[in-house]
Amino acid sequence: MSRRPWMTLRRPLLLLAALLGGAAMTLAAAQPEGDPAAPDQGAGVVTGPRFGSVDLFIDSAETPLAVYQLELRATAGDIRIVGVEGGDARAFAEPPRYDPAALSDGERIILGDFSTGADLPAGRTRIARVHLRIEGPAPTLELKLDVAGDVAGNPIHAAASFEASFQTQNGSNP
Amino acid sequence: MHDDPHIPDRLARDLGRLESPPAWPADDPVLVAARRLRGRTRRPLRVAGWSAGLAAAAGLAISTIVWFHPVRQGPAGTPALASGPASPATMLDAYRLTLILDRRETPATTWDADGNGAIDRADVDTLAARAVSLGEASS
User: Fold this and answer.
1) Does residue A160 belong to any structural domain of this protein?
2) Residue spans of beta strands (DSSP E) within chain A
3) Helix axis angle, B121-132 to B91-102, nearest 10°
4) b/e per residue, A82-107, with b = 16+ CB within 10 A?
5) A113 is in which domain, residue-wise?
6) pLDDT tens string A104-143
7) pLDDT averaged over chain A?
8) Does the CB of A14 have a partner CB in chain B at under 8 Å?
9) Do A69 and B96 lie within an 8 Å CB cutoff?
10) How far is CA B63 from the centre of its chain?
């Protein structure tokens, strides 16, 4: 009685299948579960208009801040200013004064406010937040402190800074 | 007694010198040099005298001004506020006018930002609006 051909190949086929299975399991174990550095090429990409915010800070050192005026502008990028909020300190919790034309002009705004209250902030304090609508690449922003004053109305030395929070085109935060 | 006392000639000559002009001539070189030296030494004294007088007068004038027009101090010992807003106006001007109005002081007419003849909170708003105006601020 002669053996059938598939019977003669059965052992090598089983061996090959076992090898392929082992290799597949090894590769699956070596593959990380997720790579945060790799951009998600699917639903996470932001391609259209997006929104962000810019927190504005003034550091008046030890002098209580009673009045300020500063200017925020985009030197590069396509932005539109869509809203203004107040800051953290009670004295500047309300939205500061600004020209309503800045919301239609878009790329530049002058903010200013003063307080005659007793709870004036000293040191570094967030005095306002500006909301932006962004198109295209991440914008380049510039902040200039026009004036800062103490409780007596005297100009004081202070420093202005900002922290931007908006999504870039690939969906990550700068 | 002697009705006509005899005075020695030498004594009579000396006594006569006391009542007469100096015996030496006016153009005597020693006298000229002495006069020149005297004038040279008295001029600085004269200038110093004038300077001292002027300094005293200036000091008196300054003291009078300070006494009758002292620097105005705010309630917290702050220096006097500006006499008017800056150009272009800043938020500091709006704040200063607020301080003036809160203290019920009489602001100068230069604070009449809206030009209506009255200086009140509306002028504060006008100054604040100018300060943040995109049209008025230097870009």
Assistant:
1) yes
2) 50-59, 67-86, 108-114, 124-149, 159-166
3) 170
4) eebbbbebebbeebbbbbeebeeebb
5) 50-166
6) 877 899 999 999 999 999 999 999 999 999 988 888 999 9
7) 81
8) no
9) no
10) 9
Query: Where do the H-state alpha helices sit in chain B?
Result: 9-19, 29-68, 91-102, 121-132
Six-digit token pair at A46?
């932001």
**What is the total residue count of chain B?**
139
Judge: B91–A152 Cβ closer than 8 Å, yes or no. Answer: no
pLDDT at A42 over 90: no
Q: Is some CB atom of chain B closer than 8 A to the CB atom of A92? A: no
Q: So what's the pLDDT on residue B66?
A: 55
In a domain, residue A132? The reply is yes
DSSP letter assigned to residue A55: E
A99:B132 CB<8 A: yes
**Boundaries of every domain in chain B:** 9-68, 72-134
- How far apart are alpha carbons A91 and B131 in whole angstroms? 19
pLDDT score of B4 = 59
For residue A150, the SS3 value is coil
Kindly report the CATH number assigned to the domain that includes residue A94.
2.60.40.680
- Quick check: is A112 in a domain? yes
Residue A95 is assigned to a structural domain of this protein: yes
Cβ distance B135 to A101 less than 8 Å, yes or no, reads yes
Partners of A146 on chain B (C-beta within 8 Å) are 90-91, 137
| Number of domains present in the structure of chain A | 1
pLDDT tens across the length of chain B (139 residues) = 455 567 888 888 887 777 665 566 677 788 788 778 776 666 666 677 788 888 888 878 776 665 554 444 444 444 456 678 888 999 999 999 999 999 999 888 999 999 999 999 999 999 999 999 998 654 4
Give this complex's ipTM.
Answer: 0.70
